[in-house]
Amino acid sequence: VPEMRGHGLSPRNNAWKHNSVSDYARYDLPLIAAFVAEQTGQVPHWVGHSLGGTTLVAALGGGYLRADQVASLALFGTQVSRVYWPLKVPPLTWGAKLLLKRWGQISGPRFKRGPEDEPIGVALESMRWHGLFGRFGDKQGDWWAGLAEVDVPLLAVAGAGDFQDPVWACRKLFDQFGGERKQFLRLGVEQGFEAFGHVDMLVSKAAQAQVWPLVQRWLRDPLVPVHESTVVREAVPVS
């Protein structure tokens, strides 16, 4: 489990408050991939949740993480398409940016974004993505467009009760990926699950019983359907 710069046992770099998803995707994930391959002689399977999933998506869409460095990709509660209308109003965006720059960091526990603080650079970057003329990418490239060229075994999981990263937005990201080796799983009552939310889809007793076995099945063979709802059935012609 990689601990990104400034988190866990990873020390804070000098410009920690300016860290961004672009930094994680461009510099950190390729090195992590190379280290795992060096130590094990194997291509890693990647599992990402929320911002972790977004970072993986950025790395693949930007071409920083190559397809041959990904045995499979599993995304949980990951999307970049939810609309935040206040960020479409320039004066509100300018005011929010000025306020955020004075803080330098965002309290993860206070805003329920995790157990540790997040650098302000991540928040400012997200505001740019969702701004009036924003896009999922950086100055060097359009990550969203790049995803259409990415062909890796993909499992995208969305919680029916996840209001932070809703099902429709997770599905939109899933559809943007190229290739045919893809499965989309909705964790809802209709599919035989609890209506999982953003965190409990992975961290809960219910997830341990209902979700973890599917992740295990995926890691054993990404080409086998993890659940009956992910099976794509061909239409039968009517004679």
Summarize the main sheet: 4 strands, parallel
User: In angstroms, what separates the terminal alpha carbons?
Assistant: 54 Å
Radius of gyration from the alpha-carbon trace, in angstroms:
18 Å
Structural class of the secondary elements? alpha/beta
Task: Walk me through the structure.
With 239 residues, the chain is α/β, with parallel strands linked by helices. The protein has 8 helices and 8 strands. It has helices spanning 21-40, 51-61, 90-103, 120-129, 143-146, 167-176, 205-210, 212-220; strands at residues 45-49, 72-76, 105-106, 118-119, 137-138, 141-142, 154-159, 182-187. The protein has a 4-stranded parallel beta sheet, sandwiched between helices. A two-stranded antiparallel sheet has the order 3-4. Strands 5-6 form a two-stranded antiparallel ribbon.
Sequence-ordered SSE layout with sheet pairings:
Layout: H1 21-40, E1 45-49, H2 51-61, E2 72-76, H3 90-103, E3 105-106, E4 118-119, H4 120-129, E5 137-138, E6 141-142, H5 143-146, E7 154-159, H6 167-176, E8 182-187, H7 205-210, H8 212-220
Parallel strand pairs: 1-2, 2-7, 7-8
Antiparallel strand pairs: 3-4, 5-6
Helix pairs in contact: 1-2, 3-4
Could you name the key traits of this structure?
single chain; 239 residues; alpha/beta; Rossmann fold; 4-stranded parallel beta sheet; two-stranded antiparallel sheet; 35% helix; globular; disordered C terminus
